[in-house]
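Now for my pick.
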Amino acid sequence: MVGYLLVGTVALWPSIRPGRTLVAADLLALHPPYSDLPDQQDVHNVLLSDSPYQFFPWLTFTGDAIRSGQLPQWNPKLVGGLPVTPNGFVNVYYPPTWLTAVLAPFDAYNVFVLLHLVLGALGVYVLARTLGAGPVPAWVGGLLVFSAEFWVHWSTHLLHVAGMVWLPWALAATKAVVDRPSPRRVGGLAAVFGLWWLGANPQYAYYGTLMMGAWAAALLVHRRVTGAGSALRAAAGIGAGVALGVALAAPILLPTVSRSGQILREREEQASTGHTPGRQAIRLLVPDAYGNARDGIYFRSDIELEMDSPFMGVAAIVLCAACIGSTDRRAWFLLAGVGAVLVLAFTGLPHRLFHAVVPGYDRFRVNSRWLSVLPALVAPLAAVGLDRVVRGDRRSKWGVAAAGGVAATAVVTWFYSVRGFADAPEEYFWRQGRTAFVLVVLASAGALVAARRPRVGIGLLLAVILFEVSRVPTQWYPSVDEARAYPSVAVADISEDRGGRLIHVGERTQSPPYAPNLPMVSGGADSQGQTVLFPRDYDRFLRLVDDYGDLAKTVNTPPPLADASLLSSRLLDVLDVRTVIAPPDVAVPARYPLLQPGNPNVYARASLGPAVLVPSARPASHDEMWRHVADAAWDPAATSAVIGLRQPVAGGPGTVVGGATDRPERELWEVDAPQGGFLRVSGNWDRGWSARVDGRRQPVLRADGVFRGVAVGPGRHVVEFTYENVDEARGRLVGVAALLVTALLTVATPAWRAAVARTRRGRPDSSRGDESAQDH
């Protein structure tokens, strides 16, 4: 571990040294209002925009709550308020997230990424050792993780990297159970599987779990055929471990499943179009075969293709070939897995079948993400191949020589094919091809030399691998000055001071001025916001203001209002929109005072406030409520349509004053209602909200589309709203029970067995005692 930590730290040092961060906040300079500030940092890598605009804001919000001594459950900063679990960016029950309790957000982010790359390397080492590789070859295999471009490219996406690096651990734990089923090994598999799903983006964990299932099936068949032991007992152990792991991850899984029908993005129809073009396969050897963002070169490629890179390092390809001809069927299982992953990543046909027959497969739109599984298979295979070479296996040497020849030929062929295009940057591709060719020669030579002189050969291989490591993470991550990462801007200060929510007007884009989710870092609250779990009902509400079609489903955020005249919508009054952000070329009506000129302009807007006492409310069905909201004549200050209201409310005007609370899961409202009425809060309704009116529990009702409220009688009242994610709470109970069982399996069971063994050793032999008595 120390070696991996040292290599990872050196590779990432320019980005994670004190005062620097790999969060690509330099990209803020590409959009207003940050683009107009002086002394901006140079943009390093435009492909990393998700880290400053999505992942870091969520980590900051989560860290603020954790440092105050709680795991957050409700986020009021975007789209009218959302449950924190699930959110698609940070999982609060995943232990590495708790780094934010003791580290500043930028430092926690840096350590999170480095920790997971090291975790992946250790997993490869453990898996390689279980496959029979010696310590040195296994360590070399783990080192390949730092040159695995897919893992490095997506590592700033916190849930993505967590979903990838646990796979080799899961494969190793599965093999351990198959080889020798025991309670302790079942507990180990449960712990790995539970941590994996607690921290993972579902797509990567899902693909990894499918691969783990195929691996388990192959091992069980092998065990059955060879007569190595009971396959049934091993299968039962795997099933128990996975089931217990699912229970450990219940605090994340239960809320995720329960909300699957409430979000825009559900079934994806792209069964065969989300794969990587076959021509991109050359990037297994030439990582920048079609350019890259750092060099500003894109040749017949795009952003997604550059992110989804299959490159693992030339040495990895050469060493994997050393496993060809192996008599160990387990190596062949991994080789078959590599082939299957490449087919799934580069072709479309299998996905049509999988969409039809594999449950949950149609939730994901980009099939090329199967490449995320590749490092967990290739790196341990390379370790096994190196071990075979060092042991002097003749077939492994032939495999290395053949792979080297094929790889060198592929690089030369690629270069001469692309140079024929008139728009190809020939000098750039010459450098890329030349480097790849030299590395192929050196890696092949190192592997062959290792058969006779292991130290020299392994040293040459390490030189190749470390060179590739120096090119991948070191060049990929930016080095951003933390002190200048999120500079203060007037837009944020005004929005936060005014309270309520802001809204954008202008071009329909997902990156408007003061982009969605930035309020979680800089201040304010966004009525729009960006989230992969965008609520379906909230989308319906916003489309009553400005029907933008399926844009929110496609890009995970609603666009700005297309026309400033839409600012007069009374639906925005209910939503408590008080601040308007618009580019200078957008004509905003004069009735909205200009608070801050510039790019963008910031305007004031009047609203009903964060909560209002509605004099008249009537019971309504779901459809009746939405018809009421869509009625152009609706006066939200006067009437409300409420689902679940037992009888109509006929009250009068009153006042509502908000009280200070210590967390967003708790709201206090002081209501003066001389004639009674319906208290409607501008935040989203969720079944996790409960209420007490003057200390007495009262149901929280859904009103006017997406809002929440309670009926109050005449007089003065104190209304307290409290939020607890119901499914998350159930998941915690299940998770705690599973944690206790796992601890018993992994710790208490061996201790109990040892105690029994000691007792048996100290017990006198009863038959000998009888004989002694007879002698006397």
User: Anything to note?
Assistant: Residues 726-762 form the longest helix (37 residues).
